[in-house]
Write a structure and sequence with these properties.
about 60 residues, mainly alpha
């Protein structure tokens, strides 16, 4: 297995975890500024990691 694919899978998993945590923060949102900042930060980072991981997996050729 290629190192780029492993790194892409790791980024994808981190992105999914960030998006899940953002969903948990959204459910428990009480309206404070700190909650909204955490929601934005984790959702944006989750989306970036997820898209980067999927893109890295898709563009890496399988060399056997």
């Amino acid at each position: 297995m290629n190192v780029k694919r492993i790194f892409g899978a790791l980024l994808t998993v981190l992105g999914i975890a960030g998006l899940i945590y953002a969903a948990v923060v959204f459910i428990n949102l009480s309206g404070g500024t700190r909650d909204i900042k955490a929601l934005l930060i984790f959702s944006i980072l989750g989306i970036i990691f997820f898209i980067a991981g999927i893109g890295l997996i898709r563009t890496t050729k399988d060399e056997s």
